[in-house]
Write a structure and sequence with these properties.
By secondary structure, the chain is an alpha+beta fold. It has 3 domains: about 90 residues, Integrase, DNA-binding domain (Double Stranded RNA Binding Domain, 2-Layer Sandwich), CATH 3.30.160.390; about 90 residues, DNA polymerase, domain 1, CATH 1.10.150.130; about 200 residues, Orthogonal Bundle (hpI Integrase, Chain A). Helix content is about 50%, strand content about 10%. It has 17 helices and 7 strands. The strands form 2 sheets. A 4-stranded antiparallel β-sheet has the order 1-2-3-4. Strands 5-6-7 form a 3-stranded antiparallel β-sheet. α10 packs across α13. The longest helix is centred in the middle third of the chain and has 20 residues. About 30% of the residues are buried.
Length: about 425
């Protein structure tokens, strides 16, 4: 007779192990210690063998019967179920050892001796930001062309043409390395179908931005000269923007109630129900805000309107201020301070994307697929924002800055 759920529920441990048979080799082993384990007896090549399906806590009677039937189907084809099960475990272990991340690390480690440290740093930063969060833990044998196109679509949407071009070449090289080292077969390589044209083009509006240290120095010098002939509120807003690199709209909407001088933080939600954005404030940013408070501390907004103090500063104020100091919209925009900070923090100061992207209020994922939000890595971001402010100060103040020495002095060291 076949087993029933009632029989199983009533079964109790005895002094010795015993078995409850269900038929066709399947039985439930009742251990003296209280464990209940599914087993299946079968014969293969004239030898009696035993297959384990797991504990009753994990496998129901119905599931055990399905596993038994799968094993019998293999036997009917001349396949030993135990050998087949072991091969699946081996394949899974091999897949785990051959994820895209591990194969890529192996490949770039081989290339490291032929590349400059700066180039290697750029490669790893690119992969950590744009590729590994999505496909890093996926076995390389399981990655499809559509998977890769999805990643490049995300990159193209950011309007970063040059990183896309470089990443495209790097991904193709990693998959060739996987073929050469036997991880995948030639006909399993999706990289051969990748080309610049196969990734859908997106029309992206590029915001003009100054991103080289030399140009940033010149810009900062102009910004700090603006106060001598510009409105003090707008001048301070312009000085604060590169230190916090928030969206111009968020800066205009800033309220004194959101500024915590003691903790040196600015906390706000741009939209109702949105995750709170936390902006650590450097000493330099706090000094600017304290100066602004002398003029506007009695109002709700940090940067109120020029004529109506109950409203916020005009959305043209920053644009006009930049024009006044010689930076038209095709050279630098208010939004461009975000690109400026992201580029230099990554390429010059080597900060990881896990710190930069949440500071930009961007939603990114960690290597396990979990979303970083705007409240992560606060202590590390506080250190990053202070280092950033110190770097900008020294870059601006030095008559002829040694950019290499500055990079070494302020770069992220983990």
């Amino acid at each position: 007779m076949k087993l029933s759920a009632v029989q199983i529920a009533k079964s109790k441990p005895q002094a010795k192990d015993y078995k409850l048979f269900d038929g066709e080799g399947l039985f439930l082993l009742i251990r003296a210690n209280g464990g209940k384990l599914w087993r299946m007896k079968y014969r293969f090549n004239g030898k009696e063998k035993l297959l384990s399906f797991g504990s009753l806590n994990d496998i129901s009677l119905k599931e055990a019967r399905e596993l038994k039937q799968s094993a019998r189907n293999l036997l009917s084809k001349g396949i030993d179920p135990a050998t087949y099960k072991q091969s699946l475990k081996t394949d899974a272990a091999e897949a785990e050892k051959n994820t895209l991340k591990l194969v890529a690390l192996e490949y770039f480690d081989h290339k490291r001796q032929k590349l400059s440290p700066r180039t290697v740093g750029g490669i790893f930063s690119r992969w950590e930001r744009h590729i590994l969060p999505y496909l890093g833990d996926t076995p390389i044998k399981q990655i499809t062309l559509q998977d890769l196109l999805g990643v490049f679509d995300k990159m193209k949407a950011l309007g970063i043409a040059e990183p896309v071009r470089k990443a495209l070449s790097e991904v193709k090289s990693v998959f060739v390395h996987a073929v050469i080292t036997g991880r995948i077969k030639e006909n399993e390589n999706p990289g051969v179908y990748l080309s610049g044209g196969i990734v859908p083009e997106r029309k992206t509006k590029h915001m003009a931005a100054v991103t080289s240290p030399e140009d940033v120095k010149a810009l900062l010098e102009r910004i700090y000269s603006y106060r001598s002939h510009g409105a003090p509120i707008v001048g301070n807003a312009l000085r604060l923007l590169p230190l916090v690199f928030v969206r111009v709209g968020d800066l205009r909407e800033a309220k004194w109630s959101e500024i915590d001088f003691e903790r040196r933080e600015w906390r706000f939600c741009a939209d109702k129900g949105e995750v709170e954005t936390i902006v650590p404030l450097s000493r330099q940013a706090v000094n600017i805000l304290e100066e602004v408070k002398i003029f506007t501390g009695q109002y709700e907004h940090v940067f109120p309107g020029a004529w109506d103090k109950t409203k916020v500063m005009s959305n043209n104020a920053i644009r006009k201020a930049l024009q006044t100091i010689g930076y038209s919209g095709d050279r630098m925009t208010g939004h461009g301070f975000r690109a400026m900070a992201r580029t230099i923090l990554e390429e010059e100061l080597r900060y990881p994307y896990q710190y930069i992207e949440p500071q930009l209020s961007h939603k990114v994922r960690d290597p396990l697929g979990r979303a970083y939000n705007r409240t992560t890595h606060i202590e590390a971001r506080q250190e990053m924002m202070q280092t950033w402010a110190d770097y900008l100060d020294e870059l601006r103040a030095s008559p002829n800055p040694d950019l290499k020495a500055l990079r070494e002095k302020y770069k992220y060291r983990g």
